[in-house]
């Protein structure tokens, strides 16, 4: 085994090819976890909103269908990496809807507006003939309907139930992320990891908040 002694330490440093390879492999694995690190930043902000504001339904309800919309938009484009572009675009749309609603410029609640936006994305996917994918198109359509229903129903029930329903929606979407991560379809794996980490943490936090 190839070793080198440091002066004054008396300890041997392994310079064998196996040791160098092991070090080289471990570093990229840590770097590859950047989606998790980015997700944790969002999680911290979300937890602060949950703790300090009593507006979980208003703030997190539209997010459930927005997450399905990101998948739908990336699917319509046909490039998995565009999930990141979809995140920015739909996040911006939701923010604009929130501001217009709060300032009473547009009398449309984002909880209603975002499902409409996602339906428009679905129609765009149809116009691009993405329905020829068969099962994949059906799966994305089912996701849009299911997560859209969670967003719409959360305002029609008692606030406590609505918050718990949104939390369950986040957890359901976490499973959705895991499936697409493993299948490597629709969105790229870094985005699926990013979204999955958020869902797995924020979902239970919302459920806990519903019963506090």
Notes on the structure:
With 212 residues, the protein is an all-alpha fold. The chain folds into two domains: 31 residues, no CATH class; 177 residues, no CATH class. It is built from eight helices and two strands, in the order E-E-H-H-H-H-H-H-H-H. It has a two-stranded antiparallel sheet with strand order 1-2. Strand 1 and strand 2 form a beta hairpin. Helix 3 packs parallel to helix 7, helix 5 packs antiparallel against helix 6 and helix 6 runs antiparallel to helix 7. The longest helix is centred in the last third of the chain and has 25 residues. It is globular, with a radius of gyration of 22 Å. The N terminus is likely disordered.
List unreliable stretches of 5+ residues: 1-9, 21-25
If you compute it from the alpha carbons, what radius of gyration comes out, rounded to the nearest whole angstrom? 22 Å
Please report the distance between the alpha carbons of the first and last residues: 60 Å
What's the pLDDT, averaged over the residues? Answer: 89
**What is the spatial order of strands in the main beta sheet?**
1-2
Largest sheet: 2 strands, antiparallel
- Summarize the amount of helix as a percent range: over 70%
Taken from the alpha-carbon principal axes, the silhouette is: globular
Element order: H for helix, E for strand? EEHHHHHHHH
Note the beta-strand portion: under 5%
Discrete helix count: 8
- How many strands? 2
- Alpha-beta classification: mainly alpha
Number of domains: 2
């Amino acid at each position: 085994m190839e070793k080198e002694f440091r002066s004054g330490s008396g300890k041997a440093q392994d310079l064998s090819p196996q040791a160098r390879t092991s070090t080289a492999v471990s570093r990229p694995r840590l770097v590859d976890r950047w989606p998790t690190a980015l997700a944790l930043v969002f999680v911290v902000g979300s937890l602060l909103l949950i703790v300090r504001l009593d507006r979980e339904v208003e703030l997190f309800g539209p997010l459930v269908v927005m997450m399905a919309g990101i998948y739908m938009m990336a699917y319509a484009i046909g490039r998995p990496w565009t999930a990141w572009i979809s995140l920015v675009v739909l996040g911006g749309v939701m923010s604009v809807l929130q501001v217009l609603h709060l300032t009473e410029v547009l009398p449309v609640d984002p909880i209603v507006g975002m499902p409409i936006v996602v339906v428009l994305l679905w129609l765009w996917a149809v116009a691009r003939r993405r329905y020829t994918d068969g099962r994949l198109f059906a799966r994305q359509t089912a996701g849009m309907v299911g997560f859209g229903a969670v967003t719409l129903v959360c305002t029609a029930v008692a606030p406590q139930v609505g918050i718990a329903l949104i939390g369950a929606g986040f957890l359901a979407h976490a499973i959705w992320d895991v499936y697409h991560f493993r299948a490597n379809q629709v969105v790229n794996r870094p985005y699926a990891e990013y979204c999955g980490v958020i869902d797995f943490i924020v979902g239970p936090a919302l459920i806990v908040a519903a019963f506090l």
